[in-house]
Known about the structure:
Blueprint: H1 4-9, H2 11-20, H3 26-65, H4 70-102, E1 123-128, E2 150-151, H5 152-159, E3 165-166, H6 168-188, E4 192-193, E5 199-200, H7 202-207, E6 220-221, E7 226-228, H8 233-238, E8 244-246, E9 252-261, E10 280-290, H9 295-313, E11 317-321, E12 333-341, E13 346-355, H10 359-364, E14 367-369, E15 375-377, E16 379-387, H11 388-398, E17 406-407, E18 421-422
Parallel strand pairs: 4-9, 8-14
Antiparallel strand pairs: 1-11, 2-3, 5-7, 6-7, 9-10, 10-16, 11-12, 12-13, 13-16, 14-15, 17-18
Helix pairs in contact: 3-4, 6-11
The structure holds one RNA strand.
Amino acid sequence: MIDIKLIREKPEFVMENLKKRGGDPEILNEILEIDEKRRQLLTQLNQLRAKRNELSKLVAKLKAQKSEDVQKVLEESKDVSNEIKELESDLKKIEESLNLKLLYIPNILDDSVPVGEDDSKNVEVKRWGEPRKFDFDPRAHWDFAEKDWLDFERASKLSGSRFVVLKNKIARLERALINFMLDLHTKEHGYIEIAPPHLVRRETITWTGQLPKFEEELYNTQPDDLFLIPTAEVPLVALHANEILNESDLPIKYVAYTPCYRREAGSYGKDVRGMIRQHQFDKVELVKFTKPEDSFEELEKLLSDAEEVLKRLGLPYRVVSLCSGDIGFGAAKTYDIEVWLPSYNTYREISSCSNVTDFQARRGNIRYRRKDNKLEYVHTLNGSGLAVGRTLIAIIENYQQKDGTVVIPEALRPYMNGLEVLD
RNA sequence: GGAGAGGUGGCCGAGUGGCCGAAGGCGCUUGCCUGCUAAGCAAGUGUGGGUUUUUGCCCACCGUGGGUUCAAAUCCCACCCUCUCCGCCA
């Protein structure tokens, strides 16, 4: 949620921002119109309420004096009260419609975000590592299904398309990856490990921005109206909703491993082969709460914490800064980390690191008290560190050998009981 | 699922119709005091909104939404949430 005052005071700025994202700026005019109406009504209402308060005091006073004028004042006050009731009901409707519209406005972009319509305008920031040259035809990860590692057929028997069953040593490698990532971020990067709920309330997921706009992307459970989390970002950010944090506690850094559940509505036909795009995937997520003045610096650190995972695994990657048309709804700035995948002969997203500034803090009312006792919204940041399923794919594809076996990256061997090769 | 208790400011907690935006305590800020720290003393300290050039003025907020009343933290109704005990259960 962005500040209504910003829309009121700099409408052309907010409009420009919306255009850069490819949104329709007309909604802003609607908001301004409703806001104007709201303030008029509020002024009128406040005057009436002031009058009622005054008359009520007068009643108390006259009653104490046993004055005969009481009856007249009571009647007048009753009239005022009725008028107030009507205006209050009008105001409520107006505020509901205003709030709903505000929930659909995306965050303000940082100046450094490249302007462009789609992912072709994303800007590469850096590269690390060299894509390996194969002296044989490398297999795509789904070709390893025949080794009885990945079972797509049985998965679809159980759950439909976009699910996979991991078997044997690959299942174990997945578990090793999770532990490796959690250990790295907790022991070396200073994150606190959290094991959050995977089902959350409608309210919770509104705080973080996935609702109301992206409901069709989420799995909803009935009859309790709980949502399966699409990312651990949701419960991690919501941990401090409606709280006032201490300045001295910031930045707060959390890491959590969870499965993520996404309906992937609107991505029909995309990445149908293999396990690149699944309805359920494992992810280790990083979340930070920071002071506003620190958030962009913390984004760079968050990015580097995520990059470190790929460096230790020896997987070549590049970092791109997402352009205005490709960046997410709540983000002010986003870096994607893309890992080299031989099967696609290109880099594919494996992590997304964003500074959400005060967008979620406003929605979830997450503030902190400065030394001068003033309250201020924190900034929230999130990033994958990393998407585990895609990391698994990257390892299989990048570390495969001619005989169909896969070398285990050294950093993972302690988590695999010293095993060096998957066969 | 059954029975009960409860949701008040950053925290704890008092408050059953007007004198309550709310006692008291803790915490925090500032000043004094003190070799240092701690303690002590004094003052200050809720949030949000509208309006205003400023000082200010006004309004709302005691889980949420309705209702009763001239007037609601306080009375009534519904809902949400938390806790305790019992049952069931990994």
